[in-house]
Records
---
Amino acid sequence: MPAPAVRYTSPDEDSARWLGFAFRDGDIVISTRSKTGTTWVQMICALLIFGTPELPAPLAELSPWLDHLVAPQDEVFAQLAAQRHRRFIKTHTPLDGLPADPRVTYIVTARHPLDMAVSLYYQGDNIDRVKLAELTGQDPPSGPARPRRTVHDWLLDWIAADDDPVEWPDSLPGVLRHIGQAWSRRDEPNVLLVHYADLLAGLEGQMRWLAARLGLTVPGPAWPALVRAATFEGMRGHANDLVPTAGLFRSNAAFFRRGSSGEGREVLSEEELTSYAERVAVLAPAAMLAWLHR
């Protein structure tokens, strides 16, 4: 199995944990950037695999975040080794940081970058930084919190920043690099590219497409309940069972804040949107950008 080309690290993630993981035939790896539909696709996979809206355990137990440092590696590996259902594992690591295994299906999610960034901005207010430091063994933040810039000013800086996409994968260059890796491999049978806007526009169709690509059979009478459970309203109503890390967020319900498209474009003026278009045009191929921004 080829080793990953790149190692991604942050204060609370380390993609090197994948090096010691034993894959099984049929494993599903959900590779996403933050706030691009990670929990949504995990929920869809859970519903398709178990065939019922009544999941047997919280989503984070059924679909662990393998490279998140809030849980010891041995504990996460043992949890996954004990699973007897088809495994579906979460990561924010791009494809070049993951072992390439032909037995595994890799699902990469994409969302309009401006919408993703605005959602990321608001999630920053919902994270309990003291709790995060405690879970990852870091020193807690000290001193008074600095006032945050407005979402408009923060978004303009996010668009303009020329960050290293490996060091800052949630930057604009990092987001486009992550999606671009899947875009270039989208014709491979075990790489599936899912667009947030497609889930919004035709949830049942996307769920049926994923079931077919994953080789999962769902009895006809089960579909209406599964689709209802996968709606944004359905997930928000079960937020305590679906949030990624127990205790990390000030409000579990606020994790499912809006669940729509277009908010990023609402924040910016026409001139600023033109500058954004010029910026992304030098970072990614035109065909991918047309698909991503539709």
---
Amino acid sequence: MRPATLSTLRELFGDRLQENAPLAGYTSARIGGPADALVFVRSADELGTTATRLWEMDLPFIILGGGTNLLVSDSGLRGVVIVNRARTVRFDTQSNPPSVRAESGATLNTITQRAARLGLSGLEWAATVPGSLGGAVYGNAGAFDGDIAKNLVSAEILHRARGMEIWPAEKMAFAYRSSLLKREPQPVLILAATLALERGETSAIQAKMKKLAARRRSTQPPGASMGSMFKNPPGDFAGRLIEAAGLKGKRIGNAEISPIHANFFINHGQTSAKDVKALIDLARKTVEARFGVPLELEIELIGEW
């Protein structure tokens, strides 16, 4: 990044700006080279204002919430990373059905735990899903037969040319682990979203969440990872195919295809993105050669490869 550009960013963002900042600490995999600049935001308004300033400068940027479902290259990112800490959550318990409006940096777990304490159901599946609400809407996150598509009422979208818009759920054109925004990148960002809930009993809701959390712990590995690496192909499971291809437990450097669940790739410490990418390529090549099934990434590759 040019010195003059960095100087302008310093003037605009002050102590919210970090330069040449390693991204590993902001991703669930604990992997990633440096970004030219990091800017921290703590409200939806601040997120919108920051994005608008960067658009005015024609500076490329990405937004990181929980840092899940992505792999940042070892060379990092040119441009700006906005670290989204916009986390205000407000419940409407009087509407029918009840709902929650949360800023895009709020974590799914926080929203779900607070809903449960209020006796509000419908998000139990999300208590086990890492990451932010914005990322969940973008990628239609889901687990245990639930997903954002089933809960979303509307999303507050900031468009570079048109300003703030309210998108009803149908405009997101959700598909399995995908949305219109993921399939067709646009100059937009998610500021907040409203989710529909149901009334229930706190004890029953919390019991269900506890049961799902235990199920997740019994089937998915601990440790630093990106979450599920590949989408499940129609009628099958990516983890089953990778295991059947003989790759469960395969290591390259300190990156490993988990011996617990083969669709999770684990960082055992000081792992490079290059090694994870090599495992990705190996899994894809081997599964397609053995079974004729092309594996599609659920995560996104970020940065220079």
